[in-house]
Write a structure and sequence with these properties.
Mean pLDDT: 84
Structural class: alpha+beta
Strand content: 35-45%
Distance between the termini: 74 Å
Largest sheet: 6 strands, antiparallel
Shape: flat
Number of domains: 2
Helix content: 10-25%
Number of helices: 4
Radius of gyration: 23 Å
């Protein structure tokens, strides 16, 4: 009898554990919040930030959502959400999103990386250009030659008359990022980095008006981040076209 009770107790614990794991980690997302609810959560989460209008609700995938909004102070902000532990959680709020952010949804998988922005119409941003760059590196040591070729890729994005948007990593960019990470584990690259010759990738961007003229988004930059969850976000730095006038374009 005692043995049967132990078996039943053990099975009950397994069942409870399964239910808990399924509930918190495996269950499908429920319906996302209404605009009214979103405005309330944003306003209550970020002190001093009052969301006046939800511009859009964009699902990046089933469990990650991008919500651009306008504040009562006429700031064009963004908020990021994810489904975790059986509820929708706000991850990050940016009150002015003219400096795009890179969200590394799965840090070790570059194909999950997405860039986001939201510009004040006063800045008249109509088009953007993103660049993926690696500087050329070369050195010799003990008869060995270490060389990392230059990478310079560009991608132009039209805003299609919207102030906000997102840009998923192109497959080529993802492959390069993965190869760079794999190369970083090799001894020769480690040696190169240790001696002041890092082989790292960087991303920059430039904005243009409807006539294709470069324009700096003064009213949309210098935004503040209010990070709620420990997700990985990175700034995408602005760069002038003139800084790359002599570089080869690899589209």
């Amino acid at each position: 009898m005692l043995k049967n009770k132990k078996i039943i107790f053990g099975l009950s614990l397994l069942l409870i554990a399964f239910i808990v794991i399924y509930w918190f980690y495996l269950s499908k997302p429920t319906v996302f919040y209404s605009e009214t609810r979103l405005k309330k959560i944003i306003s209550n989460t970020y002190e001093g930030e009052y969301a006046k209008e939800i511009q859009d609700i964009i699902f990046i995938d089933q469990k990650h959502v991008f919500v651009p909004y306008i504040s009562k102070e006429n700031g064009y902000g963004v908020s990021f959400w994810k489904w975790q532990h059986h509820k929708w959680k706000i991850v990050n709020i940016i009150d002015k999103a003219g400096t795009p952010r890179l969200w590394k949804i799965k840090p070790n998988d570059p194909s999950s990386y997405v860039m986001f922005w939201n510009y004040n119409p006063v800045d008249q941003v109509n088009e953007m250009k993103f660049r993926l760059i690696r500087e050329r590196n070369y050195m010799m040591s003990n008869g060995n030659v270490y060389y990392a070729p230059e990478i310079f890729l560009e991608q132009r994005i039209s805003l299609h008359k919207k102030t906000y948007g997102f840009f998923k990593y192109p497959s080529k960019w993802s492959k390069i990022q993965k190869l760079e990470a794999e190369a970083g584990t090799k001894q020769n690259l480690f040696f190169l980095q240790e001696h002041g010759y890092p082989s790292t990738l960087s991303i920059s961007m430039t904005t243009y008006d409807k006539n294709g003229k470069e324009v700096f988004p003064e009213e949309s930059v210098n935004g503040n981040d209010y990070i709620v969850e420990d997700d990985l976000f990175e700034y995408i730095m602005y760069a002038d076209d003139k800084d790359f006038v002599d570089r080869d374009r690899n589209y």
